[in-house]
Amino acid sequence: MSRNERQLGSTYNDLAVLSIVPVAVAVLTLASWILAHWEIGPVFVNAALAIGAVIFGGFQRFVSGFKDAFKRKITVNVFVVVALLATMAISEFRPAAVIVFIMAVAGALESYTLDKTRKSIRDLLDFAPSLATVRRQGEEVIVPVAELLVGDVVVVKPGARIPVDGVVIAGASSVNQAPITGEFMPVEKFLGSSVFSGTLNESGRLDIRTEKVGEGTTLARIVHLVQEAQGTRAPIQNMADRFTTWFLPAVVILAIGAFVMSGDVKVAVSVLLVACPCAFAIATPTAVTAGVSNLARRAVLIKGGIFLELGHKITRLLVDKTGTFTFGRPRVEGIISLNGKSPEDILRLACIAEKYSEHPLARSILTAGKERKLDIPDPEQFESATGMGVKSRWNSAKILVGKQTFLQEAGVTIVPRVDREIVKQSAQGRTAVLVAHNEEVIGLLAIADEIRPEISKTIRLLKTMGVERVTMLTGDHPLVAEAVATAIGVDDFQAELLPEQKQEFVRKLQAEGHVVGMIGDGINDAPALALADVGIAMGAAGTDVAIETADVTLMNDNLSGVADFMWMSAKVMRRIKLNIFFSMIYNVIGLTLGVMGMMTPIIAVIFQEAGCVTVVFSSTLLLWAKRRTVSV
Ligand code: ADP
Ligand code: MG
Questions:
Q1: How far is 137 from 146, CA to CA, in rounded Å?
Q2: Which of 59, 86, 101, 321 lies at a 20 to 30 A Cα distance from 443?
């Protein structure tokens, strides 16, 4: 067992451990049968062996059965205990032992199969190396990852896995990030790039400054999240539980009735055994667990069973423009001087004003400044208005950078010439960012962001999956929104929205009875993501906030993860219904045969456990399910 597994409190059981109980029960039962068959030794010895088998194999069930009974709860375990005690009461010790044996075998088989669905995620942690090469006082030493500190410089050679989350401070390489993003295409890493623990350094040597180690790494957090999600309940489970609460007492009455009619305890015992609604009880959680695992391997993380239930019901999909439909790597494509100042000066003032802004547009402006090797001093004052722009002070002058309405609200007049330029740029799909110096517009930065190539196809695909309308939401100018919306092929768009208006839009659709899915970058769309029925954050690798706030997180930048999610959601729900239907049929047939006295307790338990194992297998198959690629 690796260190990581122990840290996560692994419950992994291997086949050898799982076989202990069934084998021990089998040996005791067989010994009892041999002694009885050849009449060796006193009768009480073979009876004691069989009773020993029942107690050893059924110990856990006895304990929980009695506990439940004390709490006046009729559960599956109470059923089993009553059935076993009744069988023993009529001195059928060996049949009781055989029943326990069958249950033990089925139990082991189920644990083994179910563990596969969980283990596939835990295995991700094995990608994280346990040793790291660190540079300390000019020397390279190999230390256990557990001893690494934030700030340590780790050296990763080509072909090795990266042991920490951190930032490249020297070297360049391509890195396969499949454990995090599900994508095998290597990503180029160079000075300043973020890298993740568990990813594979393919070509060059990298010096990495450690930012997160062990449990704090993205990889460890993914595994934790998935494990938590697997433990959550889907609402459909409550329906299953309600069913069991009335089903169990009904079976007790049936068993008593069967006993009264036949006068045979064995008939009553068979009824109790065959009616165990075990298959029914595990129909939902096993399918949810397998579905969550399957998606995690596609780098789609979901927060719980409820979202699997909602996903395929989404009728309205809202998508943020910047960073979602577009690459989120906007570039300054033009600097238009509107008041005689040189483009260089306009850009420099804009850079000073935006120096502390985290907005993608601000970053693109700063990148343009860096490319032109401009010297960018700190602003004296800085204030950012979400979804509007920034207000800064430098060299005793007021600098405003942002959209038209933002500047107007601050008292800047937009002369017709500026207005014409905004319209001209916007119509080409470029975001026009205005720069004002002391209440006067001095220039305009035309910023464009490339549309992701796969978007149109994914939108068409999503519309074959029950989504009625895809709406683009943006804080950008209506003309930019229109240009992008047309290029992509969304149904409609809403432009010039502030973050709270995006949330308002979600609320309006929900009031109309829609199940609303919202896709955003997770940071500036947080209010809308939070209110939507399913909030989906895209390209979340490395952004903690997005992983924490969204219901569904796509670790890579590919919108087709949404299609994966909706597809799996529908599939899991169909599988749950199939499982439930199947266990009902099983129960009805079993109960009918049982009540008619056509079952022995042993056949009853085989029948019942077969149903259970089938459901487990049926759910586990979801692990390997693949989405068919359809041409749309
Ligand atoms: P979106 O809804 O497309 O993600 P935002 O709501 O973040 O966009 O911003 C809406 C608009 O506000 C942008 O198109 C831009 O015109 C303006 N804006 C917001 N923040 C800034 C900033 N830091 N610098 C310049 N303009 C900004
Ligand atoms: Mg945005």
A1: 20
A2: 321
- Residue 328 Cβ inside 6 Å of ligand 1? The answer reads no
Mean pLDDT, residues 273-288 taken together: 88
- Atom 5 of ligand 1: nearest residue by CA position: 387
Taking the C-alpha atoms of residue 609 and residue 34, their distance in angstroms, rounded to an integer, is 26
pLDDT surpassing 80 at residue 250: yes
Residues 198-236 have pLDDT tens digits of 999 999 999 999 999 988 898 998 888 888 888 888 888
For strand 516-520 and strand 534-537, is the pairing parallel, antiparallel, or unpaired? parallel
CB-ligand 1 contact for 163 (6 Å cutoff): no
Mean of per-residue pLDDT scores for the chain: 90
In the reported structure, the alpha carbon of residue 525 is separated from the centroid of ligand 2 by a whole-number distance in angstroms of: 6
Q: What single letter denotes the amino acid at residue 207?
A: D
Atom 27, ligand 1: residue with shortest CA distance: 389
User: 3-class SS at 447?
Assistant: strand
CA of 515 to the centre of ligand 1 (A): 27
Task: Look up 320 and say whether it is catalytic.
Answer: yes
Q: Which of 115, 152, 264, 320 is catalytic?
A: 320
Mean pLDDT calculated for residue range 181-199? 91
Which residues pair with residue 437 across a beta bridge? 399, 440
Q: Cα(194) to centroid of ligand 2, in Å?
A: 21
Q: Give the ligand with the smallest distance to the CA of 525.
A: 2
pLDDT reading at 357 higher than 60: yes
Q: Which residue type occupies 235? A: P
Closest by alpha carbon to 314, among 492, 536, 500, 521? 536
Are 223 and 196 contacting, i.e. CB atoms less than 8 angstroms apart? no
Task: Note the pLDDT tens digit of each residue in 328-353.
Answer: 788 999 999 999 999 999 999 999 99
* 79-108 pLDDT per residue, tens: 889 889 989 998 899 999 999 999 999 888
Distance of alpha carbon 78 from alpha carbon 65, whole angstroms: 4
Tokens at 186, concatenated: 């290597």
Q: Which has the closest alpha carbon to 208: 194, 226, 222?
A: 194
Task: Say whether 347 sits in a helix, a strand or coil.
Answer: helix
Query: Looking at this protein, which amino acid is placed at residue 260?
Result: V
Separation of CA 331 and ligand 2 centre (Å): 15
Whose CA is closest to atom 17 on ligand 1?
388
Whether ligand 1 lies within 6 angstroms of the CB of 533 is answered as: no
Contact 424, 398 (CB under 8 A): no
Q: Is 0.90 topped by the overall pTM?
A: no
Q: Which domains does the chain have, with CATH numbers?
A: 3-122+227-291+569-624 (no CATH), 129-216 (2.70.150.10), 327-451 (3.40.1110.10)
Atom from ligand 1 closest to the CA of residue 524: 7
